[in-house]
Each structure stands twice: as C-alpha cells, then as structure tokens.
Amino acid sequence: MSKWTPMAKPDIFICDFGLTIYAATGFTRVDRKSHIVNSYIANLRCLHENQAVNFRDKIIAWDKLLEWRKKFRATGKKLVVTNGCFDILHLGHVTYLENARNFGDALLVGINSDAATRQLKGPTRPVNSETDRASVLAALQSLDGVCIFDDKLATKFLAAAQPDIYVKGGDYTLETLNQDERRAVESAGGKIILVPFVPGKSTTSLLEKISKL
Q1: What pTM, to 2 d.p., does this model score?
Q2: How far is CA 16 from CA 19, 20, 21, 25, 59, in A?
Q3: Distance between CA atoms of 97 and 55, rounded to whole angstroms?
Q4: Across residues 89-101, what is the average pLDDT?
Q5: Engineering a disulfide at 83: which of 3, 110, 127, 155 sits with its beta carbon 3.0 to 4.6 angstroms away?
Q6: Is 201 buried (19+), middle (13-18) or exposed (0-12) by CB count in 10 A?
C-alpha cells in the first residue's frame, strides 16, 4: 500500500490516496468502479484548494488607508467605521463591534496608538501594545480592516476613512460628540449612529477585578 509523507506534493498525495482507497475496496474493474475513486479525489482536491486564513492581511498601514478606501468604494458596498483603544478585548467589545458591522457591508476599526492611548487612559495604559491590539481585532470575523492612528482624537482618521456610517459607542448624543469628529464624518456624507456599550463590560472594570485577585 502506498503512503504519503509530509514532503510529498499535495497532488501526488491526492492521487496516491485515491489509488490506496481503490486497492482497499478490492475493485478490479475501473470502468464500473472508478467513479467512486474519482469522488474521493474530488473531495480531497476541494479541501486542498481551500484558501488559508491570515488576519495580518486585515491590518492596514496608515499610509495605505486612502488607497484601501478607494478600492473599497469601487465595490459599491457600505463601509461602517468605528474607533477606540480596545486594550483588553472582552465581551463588551466584541458585541459592540458585531452590532456596528451589521449596520453595513464591512467594518473598519481605527485604534489609538500606544502614545495616544496613554494620553486618553493614563501612564499605565495600554496593557497591550498597538500591534497586539490590532492583531487581536483583525482576527475577529466581524472586522474587515484595522488601522492604527497616532492622534488622541479620531478626526484625521475619520477624514481618511470617510465612513458611510460612523458608529460611536457610549452615552453620547450628537451634541456631546466631539464636533470636529462629527464634521469629519458628515462633511463626507456619512451618517452617525450612537450605540450604547454593554453594561458592566469595560477594560477598566476588568483591570479592577484583576487587581483584587
């Protein structure tokens, strides 16, 4: 019986495995039984042709954001955008991001850089680096893109991302929202949707819980 080794080429493995199955079944007449072997081979070939998943492909460099947006706009699909620090990912985050994604066809998330997060959250934050935070977010099914930006406010990021829909989490109103960010969205024709966070789920409360262990 022929065997496959990790060094063998996939197509060789598929054909070899098909012959092994054929031999094991005891079939001797190819004209009557080959369709069974061919079915096995076809199924194996489909498995072989599945595309690999790579979350890194969803991380968009700042200097590539305009180009990415241009290509996405050409698809005619509706882009949802949101932003934040997303330091320690928790249920509140993933629920919020899933809800945001469902307002359109794709979700782009901007995350504050480490320096910007320190300005927003204090000298002990972030717990996770900007690269780690972007990578974890990119692995989520609900996200189509992640971009790190250096500013405390998201104004420049929003001007570049040009969201069709901008989702903002928290207890905001259009009046209490940062007005520069609001203008960046609305001047490009975007719509703003305010979505409350999940009660009791936050990075701050999680860190407080951990500190008491």
Answers
A1: 0.76
A2: 5, 6, 9, 14, 39
A3: 16
A4: 97
A5: 110
A6: middle
Token pair recorded at residue 130: 């900007």
Tokens 């998201």 sit on residue: 154
Using a 10 angstrom Cβ sphere, with 0-12 exposed, 13-18 middle and 19 or more buried, the burial of residue 194 is middle
Residue identified by tokens 């005619």 is 76
CA distance linking residue 135 with residue 30, whole number of Å: 51
- The strand pairing partners of 169, in sequence order, are 195
> What pLDDT digit, counting tens, does each position of 180-193 carry?
999 999 999 999 99
Do 110 and 161 form a contact (C-beta atoms < 8 A)?
A: yes
Residue from 129, 111, 138 nearest 53 by CA: 138
User: Domains, the chain, ranges and CATH?
Assistant: 10-49 (no CATH), 55-211 (3.40.50.620)
Mean pLDDT for 54-72 is 98
Q: Which amino acid is at 198?
A: V
Query: Over the stretch 96-142, which tens digit does the pLDDT of each residue have?
Result: 999 999 999 999 999 999 999 999 999 999 999 999 999 999 999 99
Alpha-carbon distances, residue 3 vs 12, 35, 122 (angstroms)? 10, 22, 60
